[in-house]
Amino acid sequence: MTSGPYPKITDYLEALQRDRRCLRCPKLRQAKVEAGLMGRPVCFHGAFAIVVKLEINGINKAIRMFTQRVPNAEQHYTAISPYLQTHAPSHFLQYEYDAQGITINNRPYPVLITDWLHGKTLKPFIEESLGDKKRLLLLADAWRNMIRTLLQARIAHGDLQEANIFVQTNASGDHLKLLDYDSLVVPELEGLPETIIGVDAYQHPQRCNVRHKSLNVDTFSALAIDLSIRAFAYCPDLWERWEIEDLDGSLLLDARDYSRPNESPKIQYLRTIQELKPLVTALTQYCNSPDPLALEPVEDVWFVPEPPSWIQNPPKTPLSWHEIAKPAISLSPPDWLTQPLPRSQRPQPPSTQPTEPPPTWLQKTKPPKDL
Asked: Averaged over 331-347, what is the pLDDT?
């Protein structure tokens, strides 16, 4: 991989606009770059990369080009590719990594080629769905099921945030995809050095101190995102009240709330919403824990067994002693005791007359004389 600073966003866009021959990957030689205003390529960018939409033989593709060096990127993507194909493939995109896919200023740089997705990232999707409580709660349930699938498959994303969560909608409903696999963890990579710590609006306050890859790294962000989706389902007015659209990189809460959860006005307000109270309590405990890799498993927070019905629906008025002492089952006698048999079917008492004469030795026995 090329050493030194990586190209800026403008460097990539100008190179693609000027001459598509900068794309060295054979698969991209016939690609058409989708142009926007003033002929500039349509692009989306994050903290470490830029994504541009291409068309190859009528099929839309996405090319991801890095603006910062990702340590051991080739080793990383080579390791996770076969694992993702056999574990939870429905939540990930198939990709092709080319270590020298594009040339900028006569120097080669890596690219990642994936399918182009149609849909929205999480934040715009939530804004579009405000007021549709059922849809947002179904999305929150889908989020929990996806996280459970990743846990069972022993996969951690490492940078869960709204921009890396994509919602696709079709006739069967809304479906979740995860983007950006630079910090993804599979068993083969666990314990290796980690330099990506994610966006702080979704991470534990002590995440910056985690310097190695761990399969437990998603616990905090999984709960924070679940809480956010459900908060907008129950209280859609929070979007305007808290000016969510203007928050840069945040979905509901941010690092300031996590650093002092007991003093956060937002967290205190969310605690008053009955449906959210258990999640807010768990998130507060997470924030106060010193180790982001030793948190209570998020499944234990989400999938709590339902209490029995008599606890969920207690009687509105106290029961009297007579009602409490009343037996739960009938104690009436069975029919065979209360309905006597007809006389002809009743058992007959034994006869008092001997049926046979006594034995002869008994008949001849005389009482003993007095001594």
From this structure: 63
pLDDT score recorded for residue 277: 96
Q: Give the residue from 129, 141, 139, 182 showing the smallest Cα distance to 159.
A: 182
User: How high is the pLDDT of residue 370?
Assistant: 54
Instruction: Report yes or no on whether pTM surpasses 0.90.
Output: no
Domains 9-115 and 120-311 share a fold: no
Task: Give the pLDDT mean for 205-220.
Answer: 96
* Contact criterion met (CB below 8 Å) for 30 and 124: no
Percentage above 70 pLDDT, the chain: 81
Question: Is 76 within 8 Å of 20 (Cβ atoms)?
Answer: no
At residue 177's C-alpha, the angle toward residues 306 and 63, to 5°, is: 165
Nearest in space to 17 (alpha carbons), one of 107, 104, 96: 104
At residue 371, the pLDDT reads 47
Structure tokens at 370: 């007095």
pLDDT on residue 357: 65
Amino acid identity, position 8: K
CB-based contacts of 106, cutoff 8 Å, min separation 6 = none
The dotted CATH code for 9-115 is: 3.30.200
113: three-class secondary structure by DSSP? strand
Would the CA dihedral through 61, 62, 65, 69 be positive or negative?
negative
Q: What residue segments make up the domains of the chain, in order of their start? A: 9-115, 120-311
In whole angstroms, give the CA distance from residue 76 to residue 329.
66
Closest CA to 153 of 198, 177, 201, 185: 185
Tell me the CATH number of domain 120-311, given options 2.60.40.10, 1.20.1290.10, 1.10.510.10, 1.50.40.10. Answer: 1.10.510.10
Q: Where are the alpha helices (DSSP H) in the chain?
A: 9-18, 73-86, 122-129, 133-153, 219-234, 238-241, 255-259, 265-271, 277-288, 298-302, 309-312, 321-325, 335-338, 360-363
Question: Residue 92 carries which DSSP code?
Answer: S
Q: How far is CA 34 from CA 29, 60, 117, in A?
A: 15, 10, 14
- % pLDDT > 90, the chain: 63
